Amino acid sequence: MNNQEKINQLISKREEAALGGGQKRIDSQHKKGKYTARERIEMVLDEGSFEEFDMFVQHRSTNLGIDKQHFLGDGVVTGHGTIDGRVVFIYAQDFTIFGGSLSETFANKICKVMDLAMKVGAPIIGINDSGGARIQEGVNSLAGYAEIFQRNIMASGVIPQISAIFGPCAGGAVYSPALTDVVIMSNETSYMFVTGPKVVKTVTGEVISTEELGGASVHATKSGVAHFRADDEDEGILLIRKTLEYLPQNNLEDPIQTECNDPIDRLDDILNSIIPENATEAYDVKDVIYTIVDNQEFLEFQRHYAKNIVTGYAKFDGMPVGIVANQPNYLAGVLDVDASRKAARFVRFCDAFNVPVLTLVDVPGFMPGSRQEHNGIITHGAKLLFAYGEATVPKITITLRKSYGGAHDVMSSKQLRGDLNYAWPTAEIAVMGPKGAVEVLEARSVSGMSIEEATKYIAEKEKEYTEKFANPYEAARYGYIDDVIEPRNTRFRIIRGLKTLSTKKDTNPPKKHSNIPL
For the domain bounded by 269-432+471-503, which CATH number is listed? Predict the structure, then answer.
C-alpha cells in the first residue's frame, strides 16, 4: 500500500467514524427531534475549533455475540475546542451506536479528556444521550462509570463541569451529571431516573410514565436536579455557552471582565418607590435585579424550583457576579428546605470559582410547621448558613425590606464575614415582625383587659416596636449595617464596592475539608 492509498484509507475511516451507527440510525435520531453527537459538539464549540480524540477506538468485548459488531468511536465522541476563544474539553454520547451504552473503552475515552481537562485547567462539558451500561460488558461497564464518578469528584471545585441531558440518562449514569456544577435538560426529549417505570411498577406497584418519573419538568420544578429546562436542544446548547461566560477556566483564575456600555452611575428612580408602603404587600425582586445589572441581563438558575429564592448570574460593569435574592412574590420570600438547599449550592458554586456574591434580602424568616421541621429545615437552613460563612469571595449584602430572626443571620449577615452590608431606608431588621413580637412580649399585660382596651394597647405597642426596630438604623448603630443607601444609587454602590473588594483576601483555617451539614 503506497502513501496515497494509506491517506485514502485514513479519509475512508474518518468518514466511517463520522457516520456513527449509520445513516439509518442518524435519521432516526433526527426524527426524534434530537441532534447527533457530532452535530451537538459542532454547535457548542466555536466553528472549526473541534479536535477529536480516539476516533478509531473500538470495544474489546466478546460476550453474548457483541464481538460480531464494531463501530469506530464506540458510542462517544470526545475531544477539545474553544468557546468564545477559550479552551474547553467535551464529550458527547452517541445514541446511534449501541444506544449510547457505556462500555469499558467508552468510559476510558471520557476519562482521558477529563484527565486532560484537569491538567490544562479548562472546563469539561458532557452531553448525555445513553441507554445506560452496556449489558454485555458486565462489571467492566460498572467500573467504567465509577472511574468517571471519581474524576467528577476530583474535578469538583477545580474546573467548571457542565452536563447537558439531551436524551435518556438512567441508572448509575445519572450520578455523573449529579456530581457536576450545572445540569441542563431539554423538554420532552430527555429524562433522568435511578430506576425506570417498569422497575418502579414491579417493586412498588406504582404506574407512572417516563416523563412523569424523570422528565425535564419534574427535575426543574420538583427535585431541583436540573438547573435549566430548555425548550429544545438549540436552547440547551446556548445555555452551555452562556453559563461559561460568567465562569473562569478554573479555580485559580478569576472570571473574565468584559467591556460594558451601561453607565455605572446610572440612577434608577423606580427603585425609590418599588417597595410597597404596606409591609405585607408583595413585589417581584427580579424587577430590582433587572434594574441594577448590566443591560438588564440575568441568567437565572433553577428558575422553576424553590421560587421563594432567586439565584443566578449577572454582570456589574462587565464583572460576573452571583446573585441570591429572597422573592417576596412567592411564599413571601420565606426560607424553607428547598430554598435553603438551592441557595447554599449556588453560593458554594460561586465561591469555588471566585465569583463575588450579591445578596438581596427580604426575608420574614424560616417556614414554620411540622412538615418543614420533619424534613430537616434545621439541617438545610444550616447549609445556607455554612455556605455564606465559608465563602471567601467578595460578599455584598443589601437589605431591601424584612430581615427577621435567624433568617437575618443566615442571609450573608455581617457576622458571616459579609464585606459590605448595606440597607435601603425601607429595611426592617429585627428578631421578628411587630405583630409577633408584641404578642410574645405583652401576653400577660393584656390579660384581664377588655377587648377594646387590649386592641388599643396592642396597637400602641406595635407602633412603638415598629418605630424602634422596623428600620435599618438600629442595626447601623451597632455597625452591623455599613451604610443606609438611597435605592436609586444601588447599582453604583455595588459596582464601587466590587472594585474596592477586587483585591480582597480571606482565608479559612487549614483543614482536610469541612463537614458541611448534609
Answer: 3.90.226.10
How far is Cα 12 from Cα 345, in angstroms, rounded to an integer?
Answer: 48
Report how far apart, in Å, the C-alpha atoms of 63 and of each of 94, 95, 333, 517 are. 21, 21, 57, 45
Least confident window among 62-71, 157-166, 319-328: 62-71
* Mean pLDDT over each residue of the chain, to the nearest integer: 93
Query: Which CATH superfamily hosts domain 3-244?
Result: 2-enoyl-CoA Hydratase; Chain A, domain 1 (3.90.226.10)
Candidates 121, 138, 157, 172; catalytic one:
172
144, 171, 236, 433: the catalytic one is: 171
- What is the spatial distance between Cα 15 and Cα 38, in angstroms, rounded to a whole number? 12
| 214 in catalytic set | no
Percent of the chain past pLDDT 70, that is, above it, reads 100
pLDDT of 263 above 90: yes
Distance of alpha carbon 304 from alpha carbon 78, whole angstroms: 32
Same fold? 3-244, 269-432+471-503: yes
Domain boundaries along the sequence of the chain: 3-244, 269-432+471-503, 434-469
Contact, 397 vs 497, CB < 8 A?
A: no
172 is catalytic: yes
314, 325, 407, 437: the catalytic one is 407
